[in-house]
Amino acid sequence: MPEIVIPYGRQSIDSNDIAAVVAVLESDFLTQGPIIGQFEQKIADLCEARFAIAVNSATSALHIACLALGLGPGKRLWTIPNTFVATANCARYCGADVDFVDVDPQTYTISVSALTDKLEIADRQGALPNIVVGVDFAGQPCDWAALAALKARYGFALIDDASHALGARYNDRPVGSLPGVDISIFSFHPVKIIATGEGGMAVTNNPDLADRLAMLRTHGITKASDAFEAENDGDWYYEQQSLGYNYRMTELQAGLGCSQLARLPLFLKRRRELAARYDQLLADLPVLRPFQSVSSLSSWHLYVIQVDDDVRKAVFDGLREAGIGVQVHYIPVHLQPYYRQLGFKAGDYPVAEAYYSKAISLPLYPDLTDAQQDYVVAALRTLLAKDA
């Protein structure tokens, strides 16, 4: 196995980040302390949202978002195949059914036309979804205005899986508080826009949803005396009012997150510079470069090119042999063995499948240098010439 010198993504950690974690280690709290609230407020402010609820992963955030919106057995969630499996799995955790909607052939986010057609059929059959999850793939926001209009017509709840999209904007508004979206989800995995190790956030403008999310992440427990169902026995008293989970974020993660947020503008600026530079460097090569909608500003979590499917594996393997840790995002979820067992099969979502057969994610992260990017493009150029 060749040594990977240039990964497709990685965290950027500086001395301030280290100092922030050390400060937490030297404090009175390693968990359930004041830094988590500070991190939540910073994310809420960034998103221009009212509430942010920190958890230990974006997967956990997706799970409790579905629960807070009432998803359960006999109910339905729709999302896209072109995403990480967690976006669909969150419904299965709730005992709900999952179905998929094909993707737009330019953005590879949810296809509004495919969703519209599927909703019309489901409406006639009495089988409308309870929740639709849009995915801001690679940092490119979905067409949220169109999705909100469909929500108003058909009555489903709307979740934004914005795991790729911290700092992205749609119609000049920050992702995280877009009209029509009930809950937005962010990821702080090391390859994402900011890192907390693992970690996630659920963001909402709805106070009732915020309360439910906060309870669900902590065993279904509340310490709010005005919400107690029985008599308050004293200052120690709390109540478990629902079945929740231990999905709490630690103070260590929140401290790192607060420090990382201070550099978010620099991270986004560098990602956008690198994406624009890729656009220029790849302009004469036989690759399809990412499309960006004029209505949005991507956070550029990923830079995905497409090559002919008959050379994709050779190009991928050749780049790996050159020490370049390219990746493929994503194997369509419906083709995973678990979902095939539920009845899905190849050919169900042809746009997502065609995209997958050609996609390669090139390295993109703030500490990637121009020289490293030049090396990636030169290696790619050589491999494409060899296969021409």
Multimeric state of these chains?
single chain
Fraction of residues in β-strands: 5-15%
Structural class label: alpha/beta
Molecular shape = globular
What share of residues is helical?
A: 25-40%
Give the low-confidence spans.
Answer: none
**Rg to the nearest angstrom?**
22 Å
Task: Provide structural commentary.
The chain has 388 residues and is of the alpha/beta class. It has helices at 15-25, 34-47, 58-68, 86-93, 112-125, 144-154, 207-216, 251-261, 264-281, 312-321, 337-340, 350-356, 370-387; strands at 6-7, 51-55, 76-79, 97-100, 131-135, 157-161, 169-170, 173-174, 183-187, 200-204, 221-222, 239-240, 296-297, 303-306, 324-325, 359-362. The strands form 5 sheets. It has a 7-stranded mixed sheet, sandwiched between helices. A 3-stranded antiparallel sheet has the order 8-7-13, with no helix packed on it. Helix 2 runs parallel beside helix 8 (251-261), helix 3 (58-68) packs across helix 4 and helix 5 packs parallel to helix 6 (144-154). The longest helix has 18 residues, at 264-281.
